[in-house]
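Table 4 source record.
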Amino acid sequence: MESVPSQIFPLCGVLVCGGCDLRLAPLLSADGRRCYRSPCGCRLGPVDAGVAERLIYDVLDERRLVPADGVRVEDWPDLFRRVLAVVRVGAMSQELELVVRT
């Protein structure tokens, strides 16, 4: 499989299926939306990349794992990889379990 630029899919390698722990794969939908899909079939639909990224960033900000002055969107890939070990996505895309690196 071709490598995917982290700037396009900053959660690539971090998002996993909450049901079976398989990594979600990046996907550009037919209409050009960035998504993550479940190769295992546990999830019926794709996870909207923009929504997941914003939700995860907001949680990291609430937990004070983001610098007080914030992080530019362009730097989110580095932030996610540095701070997060894994993010499990539940049945609903908004059901996220963040596991931070220790």
